[in-house]
User: What shape does this take?
Amino acid sequence: MKPNIIVKRVVDVALTVVLLLLMAFQVTEQLAHEWLGITMFVLTIVHQILNRRFYASIFKGRYSPLRVFQLTVNILLLLSFLCTALSGMMMSRYATPFLNGILPSSVIRQGHLAMSHWSFVLMGLHLGLHFGIMTAKMRSKAARIVLGGMMTGVSVYGFYLFFRSDILNYMLFKNPFAFLDYSKAWWLVLIENLAMLLAWAFAAYLISLCLKKLSHQKKGGLSK
Assistant: This one.
């Protein structure tokens, strides 16, 4: 494997791990949460630099339904990350306190809460768009069936946690405060966050399969 590919994979894994920790505020608490946020911001910039060819290709080639979906997810993910980072910095107590007071704290807090959960969902969708590459390398049909069954189970559990936690209302700016369970074990918080992330990833994978099938059907119809 080429060195630049290895660096990309390391950055991708680091982004995912840091995101899971950022969504576990009751585990990390304020000081670590802020510096993890700064780390996420830096990793996001590095990720954009490493994948700069993506931006050069935006205006090239034809757009299939899948490519439109991929571009939409990627652009929205970047915007939500930037909004999350900037709003977090503007209410920081330790990392960037000099940015406090630019906007009313109530507006910043609710915006940060909404954008962080949008980032979480979009990150899951973004990961799921790469599942096809991983499954394509699996030659065993039985292995793919087993993996599909496991992911289905994890996704059902993840979506159950997602809606039980009322995250949708955070995303729609309906709840100004996050309600966190500080009595829950740290490892359980991380597992639940991972289950929710994988649920959205699996959903994106299924959507990508449907969009690929749609493109093939259109091509078949045009060739007749």
The mean pLDDT is 91.
